[in-house]
Amino acid sequence: MKKITTLIFFLLAVLTAHAGRVITHTLHSDVMNRDIPVTVITPDDLTGPLPVVYLLHGAFGNERSWIDIKPNLPEIADEKRMIFVTPAALNSWYFDSPIMKDFQYETFMTRDLIAFIDSNYPTIARREGRAITGLSMGGHGALFLSMRHKDLYGAAGSMSGGVDFRPFPLNWNIPDVLGEMAAHMDSWNSHTVVGQLDRIENGDLWITFDCGEDDFFLEVNKDLHKRLLGRGIHHDFTTRPGGHTSEYWANSIDYHLLFFQKYFGSN
C-alpha cells in the first residue's frame, strides 16, 4: 500500500509540474508587405512584469529553430521567469537591405516586433528588461541590432556569430541582400558587427559572445574580441570545444541565459 501511495504522489507531481507556454503569432510588416511568423515562449504563470530574451535563428532557420535545438525552452522560461521571442527572418542577416524592399528586418525587429510583444505580454518594457542573442547569422543580428539600438536592448550575445562576413563574400545569400561585395564595399563594411563599434562605449551594453574552436567563424570572433579590448569595452568572450552545430548552441544558450539573468537581476 505504501508503494502504491508513493507512486500516486509521484504521478501527481509529474502531471502538475509546470512548463511554459508556446504560441506562434503571425505579424504583418507594412514596410515589407509580408507576414512574419513569431514564436513566443512564456512561463506558465504570466504574472509580470517579466524580462524578454529575443532569440535569433541562423541562416536557413525559422521561428521554430530554437525550440528544435533546445526543446526544454518552455521549462527554462518557467524556471527563470523569462519570455523568449523567436522571429522568422529568412536569410536577411537582420538588417534593412539597401537593395530589397521586402527585406527590412532591422525595422521589423526594432519597431514592429518589440511594440507587439510589449503590447501583448506583461513585459518589462524598457531596455533594462530586454536582451537579445542568436546563433550564426542570428549572432550577427543580435550584436548588430543591439549596438545600433542600445536604447532598446540592455544586454546582447552571440553564439558562433558571423560578426564579420566579409571573408565569406559568396555565402548565405549575403550578396542578395547587400549586392555583390566588390561593387558594394561600403555597404558590406557598414553592415557588419565590427562596423558598429564606434556606436558604443564601455558600459552601454552587457555583451557576451562565444565560438567553438572548430568553427569557421572562430577567427572573426577573436578579431571582434581584440577590437573590443582595444576600445576598452568590457565583455565576456569564450571559446569552447565544438563546431558550428546544434549541439554546441544547445550548450551555449545555457551560459547566455545565466549572463542575462545576472543582467536582469542587476536592474
Describe this structure in words.
With 267 residues, the protein is an alpha/beta fold. The chain contains 9 helices and 8 strands. The chain has an 8-stranded mixed beta sheet, with helices on both faces. A hairpin with a 4-residue loop joins β1 (21-29) and β2. It starts with a helix and ends with a helix.
N-C termini distance:
51 Å
> Structural class given helices, strands, pairing?
alpha/beta
Principal-axes shape call? globular
Q: How many β-strands, per DSSP?
A: 8
**Could you report the average pLDDT, rounded to the nearest whole number?**
93
Strand content: 15-25%
Please, how many helices?
Answer: 9
State the helical fraction.
25-40%
Key structural traits:
single chain, 267 residues, alpha/beta, 8-stranded mixed sheet, 9 helices, globular, disordered N terminus
In short:
The protein is an alpha/beta fold and 267 residues long. The chain has helices at 2-16, 65-69, 73-80, 105-120, 137-148, 174-178, 185-190, 218-230, 246-266; strands at 21-29, 34-42, 52-56, 83-87, 130-134, 155-159, 206-212, 236-240.
